[in-house]
Structures are given as structure tokens and as C-alpha cells.
Amino acid sequence: MNQTLDTLIIGAGTAGLAALREVRKRTDNFLIANEGPWGTTCARVGCMPSKMLVEAANALHTRERFDTFGLRGGKDLRADLPAVLQRVRALRDEFVAGTIRASDAGGKAVSGRARLLDAQRVEVAGRTYRTRSVIVATGSRPVVPADWLAFGDRILTTDTLFEQPTLGPRMAVIGLGSIGTEMAQALARLGVEVVAFVTSERVAGLRDEAVNATLYERLRGEFAISVGEHAQLRELAGGIEVSNGKTTVVVDQVLAAMGRTPNIEYLGLDTLGPVLDERGLPPVDPCTLQIGDTPVFLAGDVDRDRPLLHEAADEGHMAGINAVLAAQGRPLRHFRRRVPLAITFSDPQAASVGMAYAQLQKQPHLVGEVDFSRQGRARVALRNAGLLRVYAEPQTGRLLGAQMCAPSGEHLAQLVALAIDRELTVRDLLRMPVYHPTLEEGLRTALRQLSRQLPSGSDSDLSDCENLGASALD
Fold it and tell me: 0.85 exceeded by the pTM?
């Protein structure tokens, strides 16, 4: 090809399509290449189909509370797994079609494997393209041990789970990270006999021991969890034997939920110059996404730094803008990253917000908490389970982060994330009106605990001129 492109995007997932939207605002001289299905991991096999399964499972699970509410006959409800999975696929296909329509490349797209020949030459499906900049957004895929491939379609991942016409009655789930926790609980609630195999009692990415223990015990009440060595699989006439040295079960299918690995094989990152780390990845500036001093930008799950949809979309926008600037020889933009936020859609929902827990432990901090087993609105809804812990600076009261497993934790987590982004203090947030009865009153309880630990501490939500009426409001 004689023409030199301004930029070439490798990958058409969340990051790649977000990059495409920014690139095509600034230049018509681009190309997007993709190997495999077009459309985001989230829409195809991730966030959306998994949440459809979770919603179906949670809807059925409400029957467990019917008798307490005084509602009779709920025990007769059951899951029609083929129908559940059919709805998941049908709605999933709508979401996928929507992402592709919204990101039409206008004929500037090509299917095939891409490989970097150097920082300004890319081979796609045997053809070489010259380009002034490159965006690598090749995403990631589920981890599956090589020897497990011999079991064929009985080894499931989120790439294949939702394609099943139905599911066997017995399932082993290997790993209880965010994906494993969501799927194990959902499948158990839909009537599948689930046994989860893990190497530690840590679940859903939680690092606060008290919060983690609360969710772990909750999950253990719904399905079996075996903590031991790495699971080993063996073929049997009646199915697949799964053993970790402590527990041995025979199941029909195995869900591999041991994390994801970046799609970097044969990509040619080693041709760029910067030394690759032990994972085969180059150094990347988190504020520009530039690889070293090259005109190549790394965006999305392929980097594994923040493998979440909203982060991948942000990185796509960042990479799209900076790739065109690099092509034009202009200075790159440095972006301020969002407050870290990760949510697992278990029940209760798990979330980590703000400063990483390991970093938090290296500095002085205060902790406020609320136990949702006694929280009013949660008790009314029979959703009274969970623990929320909020962390703040000892002198200023500035919010640093939170970890939780809580009813409607997704909303509480986003409220805390907004407060951290705005650099609010505990007392700033206590000034927010909190309606009664709501779950947000639980967050207020934790904040009041923090407030009492601060200099001149008080649990009052009101400024001095209003304190006279505080008792009436409480």
C-alpha cells in the first residue's frame, strides 16, 4: 500500500471502537482491523449477557422470601434453563448489533490477524500498511489450561456459557473472582448443583478481610465452596471428575473462571523497542497510553491494568485522540484518570472504590462501617445482609475509598466514587440530604462513625447554626 495512514486501530472491542469514534472525528485517513467477531466483549460475552443471567437468577430467588412476606405458593416456581438462555442470547444479539451500528467504520475496516512489523508498519491478513500511529486494542480472553481443552465443549467460559442450549445439572466453577462469583451464585439460584473450587477464601476481588469474610459466608450458604490446591480434571464415564486434594466431585460441565489473559500472541510488540515485562507487555504511560516514545498506543483489557468496560472505553478515547495528535506531530494530551471503581453483581453486591486496599494499609487511615443485617430499609426488603467499610484521612477527613458487600451496593459505590472524585470530606458528604427509609442511611451510619474519630469529632450532620434542631431530625 502506497498511502500512509494517519492511524491504524487493531481490535474492534470496547477500546478499539471508542478509539474509532475519536479518530474519525479528526481524520478520514484511518483503518480498523479485527480478528474474530466484531463487537465488544461486554455486549457479546461479558457484562450484558452475564447480568441477564444474574437478573433471571435473582428474580427466581425472591421466592425464598415470599413466605416471610406472607406470600404463598412461591416454592412451585422453577427455572426453564433453555428459555432463560434463549432470552440471554436474543437480548445479547440486540446489544451487539447496537455497538456495531454505533461504530460504523464507513468502509475503512478489514478482518484478519494484525502484526506489528515495527512502530509504523502493520501487516493485516498478509498485506502491509504504513501508518503514522497505531492503536493496539486487542483485548483479552478467558484463561483455560491447555490440558483442559481435551474435554471439548464441556469446559465452559463466559465466551461459551451463554451459547449453550441448556446446562447439565452439575457444574464445577473454578475461581471466585468477579466473574466466578457472579456466575456460581446465579447458576446455583437457577437450580444447577454448583461446587466452586478456589485456592483461598478470597472472593469477588475484595481485599478488606472483614468485608470479604461477610460475602464468603453468604456465598457458602448458597453453594459448596472447596478451598485447596489447584483443581485437577479427569475423564470419567459419568462426567468430569474435579479434585483439589480436599474435595472430589463428578460434574457434567466445568466453568473456567480463573481470569483473563491479554491477546498479544504474534502481535509483534517486541518489534517496538521497549523491553517487555514478564507478561510480555511493554511499558505504557497511564495518562497518555503511549508505549515508550513510539507512536503506538495500548488501550483496553490488553494492558490488564484496569480490565473494566468503563476504563476500556476511556482508554479508547484517550488513545484515539493521542494517536491522531502523534500522526500530526503535535504534543500528546495527558488525561486525569477516573476514581478506581469495580463492582461484582453478586447478592449482596461487592464493590471496591478509590485507593487500592494494599496502598491504603501503608498509610494512616480511619475506618467507619455499617452492618446491613441491622439496617432498617434492608430489613424491610429482607435484604439485610452485608458489610460496608469506608476509609478516610485521619486529619482532614477526606474520603480515600470503600469496600463493601451490600444490598444495592452498585449505587452506594458510585456515590462514594463521586465523593472521592470531588475530594469531599466525611463531613461534606454528611451534609448531603438522606431520605428515610433508604439504604443510603447505612452509608451515613458509617460516615458518622468516621466523623466521631476526626479532630473535634461529632456525629451531627448539621452545621453549628442548625444544631438546635438536630435531635428532632434524628
Answer: yes
